[in-house]
Amino acid sequence: MIGFQREGASLVCDGVPLDRIAAAEGTPLYVYSAATIAARYRAIDEAFAGCPHRIHYALKANSTLAILRLLRSLGSSADANSIGEIDVAMRAGFTPAQIVFTGVGKTPAELARAIDLGVRTVNVESEGEIERIEALSRERGTRTRIAIRVNPDVDARTHPHISTGLKTNKFGIPIGDVPALSARTRGRDLVEIVGLHAHIGSQITDVAPLVNAARALVDLARALSAAGATIEHLDIGGGLGVSYDGAPVPGAADYAAAVLPILRESGVSIVLEPGRHVIAPAGALVTRVVDVKEAGAESADRAPRFFAVMDAGMTELIRPMLYHAFHRIEPVVRTNAPLVSTDIVGPLCESSDTLGRDRIVPKPEPGELYAVLDTGAYGSVMASNYNRRLLPAEVLVEDGAWRVIRRRQTLDDVLALEV
Ligand code: LLP
Question: Is 349 noted as a catalytic residue in this protein?
Answer without folding.
Answer: yes
